[in-house]
Specification:
Elements lengths: L7 H6 L26 H18 L21 H11 L1 H9 L8 H8 L4 H6 L3 H13 L1
Length: about 140
């Protein structure tokens, strides 16, 4: 609507806005419009699809969301609320484990290299790093 208006400033300001329909052909006024321009919801869906493509390209181990305050105000942090969420999510337990000197996460090759000496015969028979790490871990339990 704004694209077909008479105010040139408004036309220039909203020329690339996603909610504006495509220009109507002026030589066929009795013909029905087909396929209007991008709506705000279709623009949002496009952005969401782009975000999902980006997320699927990455390999995150986990995503942890923390609500900083109950009033939804930017910059405000309620430390008690944040600490409660960390406690419930297991973050504090993970930090305590790391501070005690135990490994939190490691890859199969790192595990195999570090603990190979404890079960060298079992690790030598394994076909790959994952199998070696699994066999070594099982042998430690018995």
């Amino acid at each position: 609507m704004i694209k077909n208006g008479s105010n040139s400033l408004m036309i220039a300001c909203f020329a690339d806005h996603p909610g504006q329909p495509l220009e109507a052909s002026k030589d066929a006024p009795d013909r029905k419009k087909k396929g209007g321009g991008k709506t705000v919801s279709s623009y949002f869906k496009g952005q969401l699809d782009d975000l999902m493509v980006t997320l699927y390209k990455t390999e995150p181990h986990f995503i942890r969301c923390v609500v900083p305050n109950t009033h939804k105000q930017p910059g405000g942090v309620e430390s008690g609320l944040v600490m409660h969420q960390y406690q419930c999510n297991g973050v504090l337990a993970g930090i305590a484990i790391c501070r005690a000197g135990f490994p939190n996460k490691m890859t199969y090759p790192e595990f195999k290299a570090r603990y190979n000496i404890l079960a060298a015969q079992v690790v030598a028979k394994a076909k790959n790093d994952k199998a070696a790490a699994n066999r070594a871990a099982r042998s430690y339990q018995t």
